[in-house]
Amino acid sequence: MGSTSGENTTPGGVGRRDLIKRSAALGLISVPAMSFLSACASGGGGGSSDDNAKGKTSKTNPFGAEKNSKLDIVIFKGGYGDDYAKAWEADYQKKLGITSTHTGTQEITGKLQPRFNAGNPPDIVDDSGAQQIKVDVLYKNGQLLDLAEVLDAPSVDDPGKKVRDTLIPGTLDPGVQEGKVVALNYIYTVWGLWYSGKLFKEKGWTAPKTWDDFLAICQDAKKQGIGGLAHQGKYPYYINVAIMDLIAKKGGIDAVKAIDNLDPKAFVGSDAAQAGIEAIYEVVEKGLLMPGTNGLTHTESQTRWNQYKAAFITCGSWLENEQLKQTPSDFDMKFLPMPLLSGSTMPFEAIRAGSGEPFVIPAKAKNLPGAKEFMRHMLSKEWSTLFAKQANSLTILKDGVDSGVTLRPGTQSTVEASKAAGSNTFRYLYPDWYSEMDTAIQNASNELMAKRIQPKEWLKRCQAAVDKQAKDPASKKNHHD
Prior knowledge:
The chain has helices spanning about 85-95, 110-115, 135-140, 150, 195-205, 210-225, 235-250, 255-260, 270-285, 300-305, 320, 370-380, 380-390, 410-420, 430-435, 435-450, 455-470; strands spanning about 35-40, 70-75, 100-105, 125, 175, 180, 185-195, 225-230, 310-315, 335, 350-360, 395, 425. Helix 9 crosses helix 17. It is α/β, with parallel strands linked by helices.
């Protein structure tokens, strides 16, 4: 979810169910905070809820987090950085007298897999990035706590409400494994294309609403020595933002569900999938990619885009914060929904939106009461606002940012895009449910972008990945309604 983050963890999203429509204040008064909660419990993911380090419970301390105890916190230091977590930890110590050990890293698997294997995990993990330990794998190994207890606890801001009732509808979905929320996707993310308002103004380009108009700008850019589309070639997750968005907008929510629900015609036999992949391949065939983009990391590609070497780039809404140091002050970063192929079912304004950046509480955490209380505070307006200030992004909390906070141009444009989308949002759940299938689809896209395979072979490989996943009996426990 490149996460959400630098290279987002599965970027998936949220949803359908009037997600943004019902958070009416999105972009008006505040920035909604988006959280992705996923936690695993016994059975498929087992969770000891023996509360170690437990103190007295009260209305303001429902889990009995104990003063003078310690928390071991690991944060993925990617697109959102980790300053927000340090601000949270300082406030937590001030309010509850609980200190923390803070680790900010991109090496999530390298640093944490040995600790999980040894039964000595941290208390809270932001499990994101290219080296994420896949949530479905942790769940199947019984290593995650079911987060129901946190979600059913009283909200910090309004004790008359449960925490889950303060969140944007649908944002918990990506953290669900077999009916249990085992990961909290905390950040409200939108995915799509990005461009420089300054460059477009200079060139007289208008943000395209159709794929034909998109191609025309890419061709004009090429004539002027500028790349058309940049993507983060070493991480094909990013080009799948474009591919999968095109499929969703062409075929509608049914095309999304067909893939999530492992339909035998999810790819091969799907007109939407064929149209989407052929559209992307046209960019490759016509030489409209930014030169060299296939061999670049996310930050290398994004930095060249910041240097006006490409008109467009694909990414999620962590992009602005990740590129703060590389972005010229007058760049005027803008978000753009994926332009439409002819005959598309969804409107241009439709966007992939939802929660990203999964936070988990390991089942064997040493300080479970302290970890649960920390997560409850993450879903308070005060901490959501701290996040928005430090990370230039929204959270899954409804009305989650104080009205006095001024947003940067890119973040503000995502707020406006979310308002324009209304209930026209979609989110794929297969990356959260089926990491092996997701990797296979990414690998196929990598081959396609390098012209080693053509659209027909891409469809075949993706369908094979779907068919393989469908044979796993566990897959019957997941369903995108």
